[in-house]
Amino acid sequence: MTKPRLKLATCSLAGCFGCHMSILDLDERLIELFEHVTLDRSPLTDIKILGPCDIGIIEGGVANAENVHVLMEFRARCKVLVAMGACAINGGVPALRNQFDLKECLEESYLHGIALVDAQIPNDPEIPLLLDRVRPLHEVVKVDYFLPGCPPSADAIWTFINELLAGQPVALPYQQLHYD
Fold first, then answer.
1. CATH class of the 6-96+130-176 domain in this structure
2. Where in the chain are the domains?
3. Which of 37, 76, 147, 164 is 20 to 30 A away from residue 157, measured at CA?
4. What is the DSSP track for 7-37?
């Protein structure tokens, strides 16, 4: 009798999508991974609705109201929540805006740029409202595991997922960690 496959979901909030690129860098190991997990909501599958999941992996920080909504949905529907990458763990590059007032950021981006004529700050209900600052995931919800790196290497992701699936304590070898 084969062991049932776990449901895995992923998403990207405020970040560069580099962590998902590292997942794709698993290359042929993805085939082996899919023998143990089924993908639910993920940019890799283009599934937009999240069902109940065993593991949720999120990259990116929390920068706007939509990010908060998605993160809360993942926390509610995933048994285990993983913050993957520097943006999810500490805000990463998007959090560089935290040193400035939100009003200053918006004015600099939309009103004071070169060659702007009749410029205005967008005010459309389709655009998620920005938070006053970019937050790491654990400031908004409980996070069960942190997978560091910018982005984590495919080898680190592979080690992490395999140890998690095996129910072993997750311990990444130093040589698999990098922050460049």
1. alpha beta
2. 6-96+130-176
3. 76
4. EEEEEE-BS-SHHHHHHHTTTTHHHHHTTTE
